[in-house]
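sorry for the late reply, my laptop died twice this morning and i had to redo everyting from scratch. anyway the thing you sent over, i finally got around to it. pasting the sequence first so we're on the same page, its 58 residues, then the predicted structure underneath. double check i copied it right bc i was rushing
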Amino acid sequence: MNEMNIIVKSAALKEGDWIPVKHSARGEDLSPPLELDDISEKARSIAITMDDASHPIF
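ok and here's the structure:
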């Protein structure tokens, strides 16, 4: 299996910070804008799941 590394960036998210309420089910539930780099030309689809397991509600 070939290892692929995709770089995912978002101006709406900062490393180490909480997911902004606007982008959560408690807010507007809007997906944050994402920038994806280094995607293989062979990729046919990409799935991204965001989960903030450190959030105090859990």
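Residues 1-58 form one domain.
thats about all i looked at so far, will dig more tmrw
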